[in-house]
Amino acid sequence: MEADGQTSIDALKTFLKGKQTVFVKPLEGSSGQGIEKYTAPDWTDMVAFASKVRAVGKCVIEEGIVQHPRMAELNPGSVNTVRISTLIGDKKEGIVYAFLRIGNGKIMDNVDCGGMAARVDLVSGKLLTVAADKAGNTFTKHPITGTEIIGFQLPYFEEAKAMCLEAMRMVPSMRYVAWDVALTEQGPTLIEGNSFPSHAVPQFAAHYPDKIGILPEFRAFIDI
């Protein structure tokens, strides 16, 4: 639901009924900044909770997603989303790249909040590379769970790709979009589409030991 400084307690009660976890996300902003996680005990005092929500201003309140158990084995502290980038290019259209974003001790997997990312093989759905963060650190195993990163198999990756391609065709005016997808036991769930996604994640040097980078992958779609 959308909320702001005038959101009523009744509206919050209606939305929160039956829910156990929600995230409050400012409507303006990026990179996971300002997002807060709340669980059912936090809104036992609905007046106090409503005050917190109103203080954020214009925001979105979203129900928490329970990720696939396999994804939780990698990192249970955040929902680890797949970023799948689609491009309607002059030469062809389709998926340019995919990365798994992995949390590292915080409630978000965003690399601007201390998370890391690893490249996903577009055919097999397995992680191709070490994970890397914005500080230049690389990881062969997750530092909290010890789960091996290279070769990690993403569940429902084919379904996730199909979902993003369908979304791409629904908004053809947005030729380049990076879709964030959560993988659950029931299949993929689309979180959001980013029309101006991070330039950092697709260019981490650790993911391109050939020192060429991602440019050839874009050149397959457009002349640059």
UniProtKB/TrEMBL annotation:
Span of domain Alpha-L-glutamate ligase-related protein ATP-grasp: 22-205
Q: Which Pfam families match?
A: ATPgrasp_ST (PF14397)
Protein name as catalogued? Alpha-L-glutamate ligase-related protein ATP-grasp domain-containing protein
Q: What organism, scientifically named, is this protein from?
A: bioreactor metagenome
